[in-house]
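Hey, sorry to bother you again with one of my protein questions. A protein chain has come my way and I'm curious about its shape. It would help a lot if you went through both lines with me. I owe you a coffee for this, so here goes:
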Amino acid sequence: MQILDSEKESRIWPLFRLGFRVFFLGGALFACLAMLLWLLTLSGITVLPGVSNPIWWHAHEMLFGFTLAIVAGFVLTAMQNWTGIAGVRGWPLALVSGLWLLPRLLMPLRGELNPLVIILDLLWLPLVAGMLARPVLQVKQWRNLFFVPLFILFTLLNGLSYYAAFSGNWLLAERVFVTTALALSGLIAVMGGRVIPFFTARATGTDKPEPLMWLEKISLGALWLGVLGWLLLPRNSALNGLLAFVLLVAAVAHFTRLARWNSKLTLNIPLLWVLHLGYLFVPLGLLALAAALFNWGISVSLASHWLTAGAMGIVILGMIARVSLGHSGRPLDIDRPVVLAFVLLILAALLRSLLPLLAPGMTNMAYHVSALAWTSAFGVFSWVYWPILTRPRIDGRPG
């Protein structure tokens, strides 16, 4: 699209022609591997010999390893469309993806306290931020500069998570991980507001609902205020109540936001209903976290999985399935195996977040079956989309 030298493009391995290719495939494969290792760990099998705190490893890798890899791939690709400047490709993309991959491979063997692991893992996110900043500054498209400080925030949270691991402070680690989950939910809310109504209107031949500015400000503002509050506010009953109220306001606003997006029109279009269902987990997760702050029978860990296993997992799978087709020149059609992957992931989210709440005696089973369903869902995606992501576009265009 932006590359004029087709001969130069043809010399680049297709996997490194745009960010979505390497990060979507790498992230999906890592989602399978990391969850499989976690499932084996839950079963009492030693598969993380270097890791001193497997719970820390699981939370960290699903957020900073898996989720942010997908985010990086999406934004590095979308920035090309937004700015009209060719996206990162070739050896720079291979470099940043390699910096992402090395800590993922080394951590199970060397552990989360290994200096090399920490240094490598703290390098790749700022590098992505720099790659995003260049085209935005070049065309002065200030709206999309938002992603640069966001990646810096994720870098700081990543560093703070390693500090918590080094100091053995699990309460700090949990605070950082939930803050990260909320911030990623905020990113889903920002991007979801841009694309979900647009995709729905285009696929159903209906008018895109115009955003209500007051609703946008309340829904996004309250959510980002919740991010800051969760990270910075001391834990006491009065401030917990205040933070819970902010999260409740955000939840109601996001329910209202989603209700305006014509979800009922998507029932026969899997690439749409998966995004609508995934987004539904955002306000559900905010409600669950508010209930945890009020001590209403749900733990913070369980509440946070409405956002992680639910909103992030489902929206991510729906988005990477759609974006991979569109950016490889293919029609937006999926076969039954991918629909099955959607169903498996929704099942995984419900088992992990809802079943322990309804039947505490089945919690251990919920963990195992949910992990197996998650692994299967991303395994199916990796199998179906491997040729799509590792081969050139079918229409002969660059990307």
In short: The chain has one domain: 6-390. The mean pLDDT is 94.
